[in-house]
Amino acid sequence: MKPHENLDPLVIAGKSYGSRLLLGTGKYKDFAETKAAVEASGAEIVTVAIRRTNIGQNAGEPSLLEYLSPSKYTILPNTAGCYSAQDAVRTLRLARELLDGHDLVKLEVLGDPKTLYPNVVETLAAAATLVKENFKVMVYTSDDSIVAKQLEETGCVAVMPLASLIGSGMGILNPWNLQIIIESAKVPVLVDAGVGTASDAAIAMELGCDGVLMNTAVAAANNPVLMASAMRKAVEAGRAAFLAGRMPKKLYTASPSSPAAGLVAPPSKT
Fold first, then answer.
1. Sheet holding 190-192: strands in order across?
2. Burial label, 206 (beta-carbon count in 10 A; 0-12, 13-18, 19+)
3. Residues 155, 160, 165, 166: what is their CA dihedral angle, to the nearest 10 degrees?
4. Angle, vertex CA 128, rays to CA 126 and CA 132, nearest 5
5. In whole angstroms, what is the distance from residue 38 CA to residue 13 CA?
6. Partners of 78 in the beta sheet?
7. What number of other Cβ atoms are within 10 A of residue 16's Cβ?
8. Contact 190/160 with Cβ under 8 angstroms?
9. Mind listing the pLDDT tens digit for each residue in 61-70?
């Protein structure tokens, strides 16, 4: 084994990544804090909201790419703020131009500005168009296993069901739905949205998710850089626990960890 060789990589669209934590770049106080949080998280894929973050489309303004180089990180442009398939497709076409033909993208089409719940009808339509245009689509969706399978069959390279609503920090509200998606999927499944703290990320990984994508949980923490470090450890620990296989849950056990068999009996009273 070579030094630092990763024997358990996350593979998306044929490319291997050492980290299973993907980090968003919005909501930080400035690009310097964004960079510090990303470095602390160990993330190799960073997602960028094309409609909200400058990566070159606004000439004369600071660009995120001055802080997070595409030579070091995989930039994952996303369609945050899009409410129709048409807007989402147009946004990712722009991203491909700005990133010199980059084709790995995150698709999200929202249903309403209050809950930011995904509009799965528009998402399916956008995914079909993007796949035909040779984009490699990682797709944000509901925790509906039927929709997740449809998106996979459309050609998406990863499905990313929500744990709970975007920015809510409510954690995983329906682990059973996630498990159904994980069991049936032949592409990576990553929890996207709703993670609030490190234990949420660990639980997602313990369920068998291939990774976790988050933004607000880190950016809105009192100390984003420290939270990013905590999330890194949580994802790593959760993955290790999943691979190790937890013991079955029992109300009680009749088999003590220190067996009673073979113990020397106490002397009898005479």
1. 158-161, 136-141, 104-107, 74-78, 45-49, 21-24, 211-214, 190-192
2. middle
3. -100
4. 115
5. 22
6. 49, 106
7. 11
8. yes
9. 888 888 998 8
Q: Which one, of 123, 220, 104, 219, lies nearest residue 162 by Cα?
A: 123
* Closest-CA residue to 93 (of 46, 133, 47): 133
In Å, how far from its chain's centre is CA 142? 14
Catalytic residue of the set 72, 106, 132, 249: 106
Provide CB contacts within 8 A for 203, sequence distance 6+: 171, 172, 175, 238
Q: pLDDT of 76-134, one tens digit each?
A: 999 999 999 999 999 999 999 988 888 999 999 999 999 999 999 999 999 999 999 99
What distance in Å separates the CA atoms of residue 90 and residue 61, rounded to the nearest whole number?
22
Lowest-confidence pick of 2-6, 142-146, 184-188, 259-263:
2-6
Q: How many CB atoms lie within 10 A of CB 200?
A: 24
Q: List the one residue out of 158, 164, 176 whose CA is nearest residue 74.
A: 158
Tens of pLDDT, residue by residue over 121-169, are 999 999 999 999 999 999 999 999 999 999 999 999 999 999 999 999 9
Per-residue model confidence (pLDDT) at position 260: 58
Predicted TM-score (pTM) above 0.70 = yes
Residue 106 designated active-site:
yes
